[in-house]
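User:
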Amino acid sequence: MSAPTITTLDCGWLRTQERTLVADGGRDELHLPVASYLIRHPLGTAVFDLGLHPDLVSSDARLGPLAKIFAADLDADGTIGPRLEQHDVDPAGPILAIVSHGHFDHVGGLVDLPNARILVQRDEWRAAIDGDGYDVSLMDLGHDVLELDGAHDVFGDGSVTCIPTPGHTC
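Assistant: Predicted structure:
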C-alpha cells in the first residue's frame, strides 16, 4: 500500500489589525493565510480543516460581529470545493472532513462538502453545537459526525492520526 500524500490548499486570506491577535499589538494590518490540507490515502480522501464559507467571496456579512475585526480576501474558486476539484477530487464525494476546531475559518467550507463525514473531538463538537461563541450554522449542516475522544487512527494503518490539541478553543 502506498503512503498517503498531503497537499496544502490555499483557501483565502483574512485581514486584521495586529492588535486583534497580539497583546500590545498595533494597528498594522496583518494578512493571515487560510489553509486546508488534502490527504490522499489508498483507502480514501480526507481534508483537514475546511477554510472559509463561500458567501465571503462577495460579502463579509457572514462574519457577523467578527466583521468588525476581520475581512476576508477570497476568490470565487478559492473555497474548498473548487480547490478540491482543481486536484481531481469531487467535493460531493465520500470525503472525511477532519475539523481541528469550530472557528469560522476552519469550518466555513463544510457547506461545499455535502456528503462528507466529519471527524471532530467530542468536546469541540459539543461546544460548537451549543453555540459557545461559534456560528452553529457553519457546522451543523446534517453531516454524519464521528465525535472523537482522544487520538484516532483515521485509516486504521497508523499513517494518519487525529491528535487532540485542546487550548485554542476547548
